[in-house]
Amino acid sequence: MQCTSGVRVGPLGFIAYTDDQYADDTQLYDSSSLVDAASVRDRLTSCVSEVAKWCASRRLQPNDDKTEMFWFGSRPNLAKLQRINLSLQVGTSNIQPSSVVRDLGVYMDSELTTKEHVTKIAAACFYHIRRLRQVRRRIGQEVTQQLVLALIMSRLDYCNSVLVGLPTSTLQPLQRVQNAAAPLVFGFSRFDHVTPTLIQLHWLPVSYKIKFKLCCLVHAIHYGRIPAYLTETVVSRRQQITFRATFIFRFIDELFSTTAAHEVRRAGVLTCGSRHLERSARPHPHRG
Question: Cα–Cα distance between 21 and 264 in angstroms, integer?
């Protein structure tokens, strides 16, 4: 069990060093108008100082140099913030605001465009595609498909709900990744038409995979089949429940065959990633 960076202790030692308030990574959030940005910085500085005192009382050493500071806002407001000293004093380190930070594998930029995240994911996936092409003839189709699912498709699916509502131009690099990965499984040429391959693999286009995950989440919330800590983050309005349910089922009717959609309507249960639903999906045409 990891206690602090570079230090490992057993369960009893961990309990001796900490209590129920300990966390390996601590995140602080605050918001304000543009004119109150300096006061936010002061509040964060005070809060970080309190965290450092708490750690010191339990003989824990914070990693001051690993602290990151990040400001969200529109482009005009971020430009105005450059006139203000927004550095954060953390122990002996003076932390300057970053333009991009990584949180749980998701890259977030100051304007929340997620373009940096899409670029990083696409670059990592194409790296693995190039490596797999070198060994494709030796490992066969079954092993290649397993490696593609593990190394490429898992990256496209991870936290993809944060990409909902983005324009097609932003998601296009991820779709190109999927279009390159599908022919690789069967050993087809990269210049072949990709739609039949996507249908054979039962892969939804990237934009539909994002919508499908979001619909799964809303459907589970609507029927109370999700943990309470997630349900509490959604505020339901009685007059909109019918509209939301109608939207979900309308999307299901469009995405899946009539038989599968009817089963979902009748049972009121939708399992995210269900095999029989994925096989009933209708991939939209995408050319490689």
Answer: 42
CA distance 28 to 47: 8
State how far the Cα of 148 lies from the Cα of 126, in Å rounded to an integer: 11
- How far apart CA 118 and CA 116 sit, in angstroms, is 6
**E strands present in 28-181:** 69-70, 88-90, 93-95, 97-98, 100-103, 106-109
Distance CA 219, CA 222 (A): 5
Interatomic CA distance for residues 32 and 51, integer angstroms:
22
CB 68, CB 107: distance < 8 Å: no
Q: Is the pTM of this model over 0.85?
A: no
- Can you tell me the distance from the alpha carbon of 135 to that of 205, in angstroms, rounded to the nearest whole number? 26
Number of residues written out for the chain: 288
pLDDT tens for each residue of 105-158: 888 888 888 888 999 999 999 999 999 999 988 888 899 999 999 999 999 999
Question: Which token pair is 165?
Answer: 């509502």
Secondary structure class of 31 (helix, strand, coil): coil
Residue bearing tokens 């996507």: 198
